[in-house]
Every structure is written in C-alpha cells, then in structure tokens.
Design brief:
The chain is of the alpha/beta class. The protein has 30 helices and 15 strands. It has an eleven-stranded mixed beta sheet, sandwiched between helices. Strands 3-4 form a two-stranded antiparallel ribbon. A two-stranded antiparallel ribbon has the order 14-15.
C-alpha cells in the first residue's frame, strides 16, 4: 500500500502535466512520451525555477525519461512484480497476534533496507505463526498471580478512609473470588491500623480509639452500599457475620466482601508491638511473605512432600505474588492496578512499579502541590525511568514483587535498628525511599507507569506541608548520597544504574543542594530590575530575610518558624507577581518577546505549556502553574531552610492529635462502668453486624510472638536514652547544616564574582514576529545561571520525557489485539 501511495504521489502529477501539454499543443503531429521528454523538459527547465512543486515534477519526469517509458516491457514488468509482491506478503495482514513483538521473534534478520523500507520489512517478516501463537498461549495460561493490598492507617479522616475502603470493594467486584472466576490474579486486602488502642476510663484496660471505631462503621456502610448495588432484585441483603480475634499485636477483624475476597483489619496496640510506619511495613512483609508464603510451605515439607517440589512451588509463588503498598488516604481503580500487574509480569527484573499520583484537596497550598506533583511525574520520574531507575517508589501507591522483597539484604536489612542519628533520617523518616534503595542495591529496577492513576490527599495548609517536607527533604538527600556514593556496587551490578546515570544524579543533587543560594540570587536580580538599584545592594537585601530566618529557626519553636515563613512567603509571592506583570508589560510596550525581564519568564511558561500539551488528559493542571511560580521562591528558600534546620525532629508531624489529658466534663461524669473486654464492647456497640469471636491457630500465634521478640518489641520509654538520642540528632543536624549553608554561601559568592566580570552572552533582539531587529541586548546573569544549572537538568529531563512518551505510544499499540474483543471472547468460549 505504501508503494502504491508513493507511485500515485509522484507519477500522477507527471501524467497531468503530460496531458496538459498534449492538449495545449497546437499541432496534428502525434506526440508520445519520448518526444515529450526530448522537446519539453529542457525547454521548461528555466521557466520552472523558483517553484518547488514544479521542480519536483520535472525531476520525476527526467527520471522516467531515462527509463524509456515507451518500452512496454518495463511497464508490463512493474505491474506483475507489484502483484507478486502483494501475494507473497499477503499473509502478514492475517496474523492473529499482538501488533508489536521483539525484533528477533518477528523478523528473520534484524537489518532492513533503508531505500525500500516497506518492501524489506514485509519480505523479512517470519512466516512461522506458531511462534506468536505459543507466546499468546503462554500469556493465557500463565499462573494466577496473588495480590495483597496493604493499606496503612493512623489518623485519617472518615472521607479518606472511605475512599480507601471503596477501592478495595471495587477490586472485589472486578476480580471476584466466586463466579465468574478470572485467571489473571486474585486479591486479598489488609488494613494495618497503627496505634489503634487507647486507655479506657477506670480499669477497663485497652479499647479501640475513635479512629478505629470509625473505620468499622465505614466498612459496614460501604459493605451495605455494594451489596445492595450488586443485588438487582431490589431486596436488601443482610450483612453476614464478621470475625474478630485477639492477637499478640492487638486485634484482627476479618470481613468477607460480597464477592468472596477478604479484608483483614489489623489493629495494632503500641504497648504490644512497635508502632510507626516503617515497623508496620516490616510487620506485613514478614506476615505475608515469611508466614503465608514460606512457613506454610515448610509445613507441607514436614508432612512428607518432595523437597524439590516444595522448592519449585515456593519459587513459583514468589514470582507470582505482589504487594500493593497504599496509604490510608489513597484511592484507585481496579484497571489502574491491573496495569501495574501486567507491567511486572512482562518485565521479570522490575522489582517495583508505581503510577501517577494525583493530589486531592482544595486551597492555594493544594494547588501548588498539584502542579508540583505534575511536574515531578512528567519530568523527574519519566527521566529516571528512561535513564536508569526511579530512586523512590512512593509508599502512597506502589506495587512490589515478592521475589524482589525476599531477595538478600532487603527484608533482612529493612528492620535495622536505628542506633546512629543518620539512621533515624535514612530509615525511619522515609521508609519507602529506604526500601527502594535496598532493591536497587540488589540489582532490581524500579519503574514508573503514567497510565496507572491513583489519588491521595496532600497537606491542606502550610503547617502540614512544612512538616511533611521536613521528613522528605533530608531523606531524599541522604538516601541519594548513600546510594550513588557509598554503594558503588549498585553501579556495577545492574546495567540500568550506569555511570552516566550516576553522574546525572550527582549533577541533580548539586543543583538541589544549592537551591537556596540560586533562588536568592534570582530574587536579587528581580529586585535590581524592578527597583533599578545596584545588583550588589539588591543581593544584600535578598540575602537578609533567609539569613535572619536561619537564625530564628535555630531558636524558635516550629509553629513560630512556620508562621514567619508564611509572612515571608507573602512577600516573595508579591515579588513574583510584580515580575510577571512587568515582563508582560515590557513585551507589550517594546513589541518584542525578548527583554531582560522576560528571558526567564517566557521560556518557563513555554516549557510548561509544551509539557502539558504532551499530557492532554492533564491539561487542566496548567491552570495551577501560576500558584506554583509565585510560591516557588518561598519553597526553594524558606521551606528548604526549615527542613534542614529541623531534621533533628523525628516525629511524624502530620495528622498529629493532642493526647487526652484524662479530664472530662463534670456534667458528663457517670458512675464507673464494669470492666469490659474491647471485643465485648464492640459486640455491644454493633447492631447491624454480628461479630463472632475467633482465635488464631497455635502456630500463627507462636510466629507472631517470635517476630515480636526478634524485630517488633514496642519502644520502651527511657529518659536517659531519649535525651542521648536528641543530643546526637542535634549534633548531627549542626554538622550537616554547617556544610549545607557553607556550600550555599560559597556558591553565592562564586556566581556573584562571575557576574561582576560579566561573563555572560549577548543576545540579538527579536520582535513579536520572530524577526531580528538588529538591536543587541545583554542577557541577565541570573537567566544564564538558570540555563547552566537547573536549565541543564530540565533539558535532560525533557529529553527523557520525549523518549518516554514515544515509548508509551508503542506500549499502547502493542497492548492492542488485531482482532475485535467480541471475536476473541467467542473463541475463548468455544
């Protein structure tokens, strides 16, 4: 078909010109194509100069003249050749396979003819259709995967918990355990509720807190909604009994969803088992992979089964078991999970994969994060995916391969006890990044799939945002340094962690660390331009607020620090708005798009627009770009300073609630109730749901006790140890902050000296029609430094984004079948 199109494109214009020549020729002499070539081509040559289309037609005519088109043998040979070629390659159009395969599976040779591309590809295509059929047969008969959903909760709101639970019920309906059964994967949901117990009044022991009780009500409400929605008869079905168990770590609630899959809610008591998120991660990894996957199979081995068969079964289960790590405020659709599962099935050396996380919420702080998340996903993650591997698989929504988690030095090192100050930051403050680093060191790849979407609640105000980034920023720096500097074995053990990739991260890390100095320098340039003052004076004015804020952060409480940051953020936002308006005004006044004030603003907005166009479904995020830009100086200066100075604070910082002081309203004082077990309390509280008390097996109970003794003993309050830990953390903070601020001061001094010597280029001015005006303007140094530093990183990430988007299109085409879905379904049924 391509050769026919080419033939029509070039031959038909020649025929039209030839016929036009015969019609307009005022003679009775017989004119053929040969005489047309001899008499007309040379005569029309001068008259066709300057017309590209006519010149092209003339070149084609000359070529046909040299072939002697009057030779009927040539014409009679071309047509049969084309028919023969079409018949010889006709089988290609009837392949019942996926559109794209590996080159060695689809073609006889990996080479092709650059001149006749279509013909060489068609003639080189393999005729052996059975190879593709065997691949398709393998995909259809692959072992059914087991997916464990592991959601961690603490102090989430009712709406957040409800969205998370609804996601589990959607998955139950999407892949039911009852009829109709699917063979691609089955699922089981687990909710790990941290610090779920509190001291009851009087001497009644430990009872579930209000958050845990609200979760039970939400599960009951969602259960009723789904069971009545699925029931087409209109009759309301009664919710079946739930099981509740006492466990060595607290309690467990077992709920069977309408389509047969289970939800297991694990209520953790911090007096019985270690709390906080990293230890919850350790808890469910060992429970699901060590107990469920390994211990039960070892029990079968003791019953006399063949050792080789058991080892084969365990290895097969490792390859087909996946864990989906979720935050308690995350929601996703079943199809998004299936995309992640299919990716892990397709690429066996990928240890973890994550999708696009969309922030939810309202307010200016949330709007800033929406565009920040979009840029990070569009640029940073896409580039890391293309160049090597992601350095962080986010804990909010990531799918892990059991085989990778059970590799050497992954699960074994995850419960490493924090004994040094850096361990608290490296391991406890960012458990997801720490786990990702362990996978990378073992040679596994961590990848990003933007086709999978999840939604997570983000900080709604400045205090929550600052406390969240207080955990994130030091963890990012320390884990990156630990991975690319202290562990060179990671570079040597896997091809995706190449030396160029490590060099890219060194450059990105340097730009990241000197961000406050670079941003302050840019602010000085803005002040100098807006108020027409000397740059040295503007630089002093720009440096004073960050310097004062550094000193205040060392002396004041965190809440006061955040309040001061909010006031200064207003100043920076106003400054950026003035800069944007000034840049627009100078472009309108000068009728040019290139002015000293717009050299930075215009390229940034153009880049944002181009990147957003490449993600058409998320084009609406572009409306939040303004909030991102006006808040950017505050985030790069004040927020960065806050996170570094307060890295010694290792508490979580978000969703914190004040502990109950034990006092109550005198009007509400009642006689103390009789002692009551927490299970009895829940049974009495539940009306629509019957809670049937059950117990663990002896083997599982012993396993939990051994696991607690080995890794999960609760934290013991020791005043002397706590004081020593806080002292060590402060000393470590002081050392890191000294080198951090010293490096920023040196960088600021260096770029100021370069500006003083005027080592930056001149630019030729252009008007709004992109035509040169002849005027020479001097580029501002802050713009030049932007393009040398962050601009270079941005360019590399943009190249990675282009490659990733092209690869995404190829993957999408490859996922399509050449047959309609109805026809495939009928074949399977037959």
């Amino acid at each position: 078909m391509a050769s026919m199109a080419v033939m029509a494109l070039f031959i038909i214009p020649v025929i039209f010109y030839y016929q036009d020549y015969r019609i307009n020729l005022d003679t009775t002499e017989h004119i053929n194509f040969t005489s047309y070539c001899n008499t007309l081509v040379d005569e029309r040559n001068p008259s066709l100069s300057g017309n590209m289309l006519l010149q092209l037609v003339l070149d084609v005519t000359r070529t046909l003249c040299y072939l002697d088109m009057s030779n009927i043998g040539l014409m009679t040979g071309v047509v049969p050749w084309w028919i023969t070629f079409g018949l010889a390659t006709f089988y290609v159009w009837y392949f019942k396979t996926h559109c794209i395969h590996l080159t060695q599976n689809q073609f006889m040779k990996s080479l092709y003819d650059g001149v006749f591309i279509e013909q060489s590809l068609l003639l080189n295509t393999q005729f052996d259709i059975h190879t593709n059929d065997r691949m398709h047969h393998f995909r259809e008969n692959a072992t059914t995967a087991m997916v464990y959903l592991c959601s961690t909760m603490w102090h989430e709101t009712d709406d957040e918990m409800k969205d998370n639970v609804i996601s589990m019920f959607r998955l139950d309906r999407y892949r039911p355990k009852t009829e109709p059964k699917f063979e691609d994967f089955t699922c089981e949901a687990h909710i790990y509720f941290d610090d779920a117990f509190e001291n009851a009044e009087g001497k009644q022991g430990r009872h579930l807190n209000k958050y845990a009780k609200n979760l039970m009500k939400i599960i009951s409400e969602v259960y009723g909604t789904f069971i009545n929605t699925d029931d087409t008869s209109g009759n309301q079905e009664q919710i079946p009994d739930w099981k509740i168990l006492k466990t060595p770590y607290g309690g467990r609630l077992v709920v069977t969803m309408p389509h047969g899959n289970d939800i297991l809610v694990h209520f953790k008591d911090k007096d019985l088992i270690r709390n906080k998120k990293r230890w919850t991660l350790v808890m469910y990894l060992y429970y699901l992979l060590d107990w469920k996957l390994m211990t039960k199979n070892n029990k079968n081995l003791q019953e006399g089964q063949n050792e080789k068969d058991i080892a084969t079964q365990i290895q097969e289960k490792k390859k087909n078991t996946y864990l989906l790590a979720l935050d308690g405020d995350t929601s996703l659709q079943p199809t998004d999970l299936k995309i992640l599962i299919d990716h892990l099935k397709m690429y066996p050396r990928v240890g973890s994969v994550s999708g696009r996380v969309h922030p939810t919420g309202t307010g200016p702080v949330v709007w800033f994060q929406k565009f920040e998340y979009a840029i990070n996903n569009w640029m940073l993650k896409s580039a890391e995916h293309v160049f090597g591997s992601l350095l962080c698989s986010p804990g909010s929504c990531s799918l892990f391969r059991a085989e990778a988690l059970m590799d050497d030095n992954v699960m074994e090192k995850l419960p490493t006890k924090s004994t040094e100050p850096k361990h608290y930051i490296l391991c406890d403050q960012g458990e997801d990044r720490f786990l990702t680093s362990l996978l990378l060191k073992q040679g596994w790849t961590v990848e990003y799939i933007d086709a999978s979407n999840s939604y997570s609640t983000v900080p709604q105000n400045l205090k929550e945002l600052y406390n969240q980034r207080r955990r994130w920023v030091p963890t990012i720096v320390m884990n990156t340094v630990d991975l690319i500097f202290c562990n060179n074995s990671a570079t040597m053990r896997k091809s995706s962690m190449s030396r160029l990739y490590i060099l890219y991260h060194w450059l990105a890390l340097f730009v990241y660390i000197v961000t406050p100095a670079t941003a302050s320098f840019c602010v000085a340039g803005v002040l100098s331009f807006l108020f027409n003052i000397h740059f040295a004076v503007a630089l002093v004015i720009a440096v004073i607020p960050p310097a004062v804020y550094v000193g205040l952060c060392f002396k004041l409480k965190e809440d006061t620090q955040i309040t001061i940051a909010a006031v200064l953020s207003t100043f920076y936002a106003f400054l950026m708005l003035v800069l944007i308006m000034t840049a627009i005004g100078s472009m309108v006044k000068g009728q040019t798009i290139l002015t000293p004030s717009s050299i930075f603003v215009v390229p940034v907005f153009i880049n944002f627009f181009i990147i957003a166009i490449m993600h058409p479904k998320e084009l609406s995020v572009l409306f939040y770009a303004l909030f991102y830009i006006i808040y950017l100086p505050s985030a790069e200066i004040l927020l960065f300073i806050y996170t570094m100075v307060n890295m010694n604070c290792i508490y979580w910082g978000t969703r914190e609630t004040k502990p109950d002081d034990g006092t109550s309203d005198p009007a509400m004082i009642q006689p103390p109730p009789k002692p009551q077990c927490w299970i009895r309390q829940l049974q009495n509280m539940s009306r629509e749901i019957q809670l049937q008390e059950d117990c663990l097996s002896e083997e599982e109970e012993n396993y939990w006790k051994e696991l607690q003794d080995k890794y999960l003993q609760p934290f013991q309050a020791d005043k002397e140890t706590d004081e020593k830990r806080l002292k060590d953390l402060r000393e470590f903070r002081n050392k890191v902050c000294f080198w951090f601020f010293f490096g920023n001061v040196l960088w600021l001094f260096l770029i100021f000296n370069i500006k003083t010597f005027k080592i930056f280029p001149s630019l030729i001015n252009i008007d709004i029609n992109l035509e040169e005006t002849g005027e020479i303007i001097q580029a501002e140094f802050l713009d030049f430094m932007f393009y040398l530093g962050p601009g270079l990183i941005f360019l590399l990430q943009f190249m990675g984004l282009l490659f990733y988007r092209v690869h995404t299109i190829i993957d999408y085409i490859a996922s399509l079948d050449t047959e309609p879905e109805e026809q495939i379904w009928k074949k399977k049924q037959s």
